[in-house]
């Protein structure tokens, strides 16, 4: 909690001018005293007081803190409190920040009794003294807090440790580690011994604990870092990275404490740790660049199994870059969706090329894939189209489609790149896996239902023969955008949406905080956008793009578009982050308190605030959806 407070101060930009919460400030002194009270107070009744200065004296008398350290801490506490009080008298309000303008700073310095002298102005003297105080306090704080921990972890036996196991657990619990015993054991493994990596971990222990405490799940972060440092070669590589770039160590703590999935990817690719603090190194290449590297990764291998494994490793390495930029807030939700989509397209292109198609063959993306809005947990909704009507052409098209699905979907979760869903094709699971253009056109003209037309609003060529895919898109455009939407069509879409609301929320998921199917959440907004697009002939492949196009075409009021966009981006961001934190797909916000805390921390908020944000944006969104999608009157 203290580390989070310091991070919050750093974000405000006030730096060491903050008297209370900055490093070396009042909170450092109070926190040090309270920590020692927690460690020793259950045995020593004299340490159960609440006055900081009195407790410093008692701690020194009992030998729990060095006399000189206690004296300097007491003097610093008095001086910082005096400055704080004088500052508040000057401004007549609760302020804790030293002013930056020279007039106010000079006035404060003179109130504190400083006068201009040969060694500097009154303001300069005060600034130097405060800097010295903060440096002294921070040094004592870190020495009291960390040195016993380091000695405890670096020793080989309990008898050699300078503090008890219980005291060690208290210190670790203060950093947010729930399983303090397991944490102590893991830290002991990292810091014990004479290896170069162990010595480096000893030096970095204070920083690592601070950085891990800022992550959503410090216990998970430490576990993944320990696993990453398993093995002498990998340990040396990571130690070298840490030595050259402490920022890489800090970034690793954030990633490892956020997502087991991402930690496991780093475990298989430790060279990526050095890239974590470099946004440009994490950035996704353009489509052509991704396809080139994906194809090269497959061409280097022989046999389907090795090719699939190589392609998966390539995909995972690129996925890490997208997710890391997401976690570090370098990219917004829309960019994350585009990058995930481009990565999936390049994966399909490389896999398809490895199959050496003997006829023109293309993959058309629909749903979120077609809309360039993939989430981390998204399936790839696709349709396959081929050219040629001879029996040999049909056989070849089936071979390609089935082999492509096997290569991308894998045979086990460990070999899976993506789940491929072909159910939006004509006749669904009962229809042919791949068709020619004429077959698609006949079906759409003579048999298609309104919901199938709605699904094709996001159709786009994603892999294979671009010319062939473009011909199919021409047929789709004539069918989808050729004639508006009848009253019967509107009624069918509304009825289908109502069935989804009534039937589809799985057992065990919270309907009140469902990110996909909840009232005013993703599905509501997607249906509303697609209905308006079909009604008014507004072409756009994605939901966010659709909102822009509808607003620019004066179909959608700007305020309504903003409300829907805010809810969509919020739900999508939380859904994406929950996948990373949970390392498994889920469409509702977690109900378990610990999981809810991890998710909220990863988004720099608290569980209650996150839920209240959901309620606010989805309530406003649902009001717009009821008016625009269901045609209900506005609520006055």
Report what the structure shows.
- With 636 residues, this protein is mostly helical.
- It has 3 domains: 2-174, Nucleotidyltransferases  domain 2 (Four Helix Bundle (Hemerythrin (Met), subunit A), Up-down Bundle); 281-480, Beta Polymerase, domain 2; 487-628, Four Helix Bundle (Hemerythrin (Met), subunit A) (Up-down Bundle), CATH 1.20.120.
- It has 28 helices and 5 strands.
- Strands 1, 2, 3, 4 and 5 form a 5-stranded mixed β-sheet that branches.
- α19 links the parallel β2 (380-386) and β3.
- α3 (52-61) runs antiparallel to α4 (67-91), α10 runs parallel beside α13 (260-268) and α16 (304-327) runs antiparallel to α17 (333-354).
Q: What are the salient characteristics of this protein?
A:
Beta Polymerase, domain 2; 5-stranded mixed beta sheet; Four Helix Bundle (Hemerythrin (Met), subunit A); mainly alpha; 636 residues
What's the pLDDT, averaged over the residues?
A: 89
How many DSSP E strands? 5
Characterize the largest beta sheet: strand count, sense, and whether it forms a barrel. Answer: 5 strands, mixed
Question: Can you count the helices?
Answer: 28
Terminal CA distance reads 44 Å
Number of domains: 3
CATH class of the largest domain: Alpha Beta
CATH level 4 superfamily of the largest domain: Beta Polymerase, domain 2
């Amino acid at each position: 909690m203290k580390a989070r407070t310091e991070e919050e101060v750093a974000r405000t930009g006030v730096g060491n001018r903050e008297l209370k919460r900055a490093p070396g400030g009042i909170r450092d002194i109070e926190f040090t005293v309270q920590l020692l009270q927690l460690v020793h107070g259950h045995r020593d009744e004299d340490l159960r007081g609440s006055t900081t200065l009195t407790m410093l004296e008692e701690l020194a008398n009992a030998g729990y803190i060095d006399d000189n350290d206690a004296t300097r801490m007491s003097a610093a506490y008095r001086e910082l409190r005096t400055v704080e009080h004088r500052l508040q008298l000057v401004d007549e309000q609760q302020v804790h920040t030293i002013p930056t303008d020279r007039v106010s700073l000079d006035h404060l310095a003179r109130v504190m009794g400083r006068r201009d002298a040969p060694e500097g102005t009154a303001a300069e003297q005060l600034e130097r003294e405060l800097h010295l105080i903060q440096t002294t306090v921070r040094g004592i704080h870190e020495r009291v807090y960390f040195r016993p921990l380091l000695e405890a972890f670096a020793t080989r036996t309990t008898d050699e440790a300078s503090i008890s196991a219980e005291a060690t657990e208290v210190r670790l619990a203060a950093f947010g580690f729930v399983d303090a015993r397991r944490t102590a054991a893991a830290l002991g493994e990292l810091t014990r011994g004479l290896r170069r990596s162990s010595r480096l971990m000893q030096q970095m222990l204070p920083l690592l604990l601070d950085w891990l405490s800022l992550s959503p799940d410090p216990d998970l972060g430490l576990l993944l870092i320990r696993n990453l440092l398993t093995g002498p070669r990998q340990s040396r590589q990571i130690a070298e990275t840490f030595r050259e770039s402490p920022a890489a160590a800090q970034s690793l703590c954030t990633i490892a404490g956020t997502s087991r999935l991402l930690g496991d990817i780093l475990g298989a690719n430790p060279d990526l740790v050095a890239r974590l603090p470099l946004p440009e190194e994490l950035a996704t290449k353009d489509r052509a660049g991704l396809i080139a590297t994906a194809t090269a990764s497959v061409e280097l291998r022989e046999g389907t199994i090795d090719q699939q494994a190589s392609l998966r490793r390539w995909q995972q390495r690129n996925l890490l870059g997208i997710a890391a930029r997401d976690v570090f807030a370098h990219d917004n939700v829309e960019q994350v969706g585009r990058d995930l989509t481009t990565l999936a397209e390049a994966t399909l292109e490389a896999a398809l090329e490895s199959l050496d198609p003997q006829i023109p063959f293309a993959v058309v993306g629909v749903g979120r894939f077609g809309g360039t809005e993939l989430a981390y947990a998204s399936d790839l909704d696709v349709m396959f189209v081929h050219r040629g009507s001879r029996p040999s052409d049909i056989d070849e098209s089936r071979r390609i489609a089935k082999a492509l699905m096997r290569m991308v979907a894998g045979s086990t979760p460990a070999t899976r790149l993506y789940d491929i869903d072909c159910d939006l094709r004509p006749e669904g699971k009962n229809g042919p896996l791949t068709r020619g253009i004429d077959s698609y056109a006949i079906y759409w003209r003579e048999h298609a239902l309104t919901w199938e037309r709605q699904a094709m609003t996001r159709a786009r060529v994603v892999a294979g023969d671009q010319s062939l895919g473009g011909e199919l898109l021409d047929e789709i455009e004539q069918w989808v955008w050729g004639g508006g939407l009848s009253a019967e069509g509107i009624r069918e879409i509304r009825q289908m949406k109502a069935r989804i609301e009534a039937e589809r929320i799985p057992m065990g998921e919270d309907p009140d905080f469902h990110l996909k199917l909840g009232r005013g959440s993703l599905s509501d907004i997607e249906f509303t956008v697609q209905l308006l697009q079909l009604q008014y002939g507004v072409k756009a492949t994605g939901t966010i793009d659709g909102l822009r196009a509808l607003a620019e075409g004066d179909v959608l009021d700007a305020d309504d578009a903003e409300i829907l966009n805010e809810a969509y981006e919020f739900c999508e961001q939380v859904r994406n982050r929950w996948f990373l934190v949970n390392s498994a797909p889920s469409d509702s916000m977690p109900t378990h308190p610990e999981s809810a805390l991890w998710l909220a921390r990863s988004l720099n908020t608290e569980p209650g605030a996150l839920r209240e944000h959901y309620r606010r944006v989805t309530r406003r969104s649902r009001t717009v959806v009821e008016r625009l999608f269901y045609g209900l009157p506005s609520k006055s």
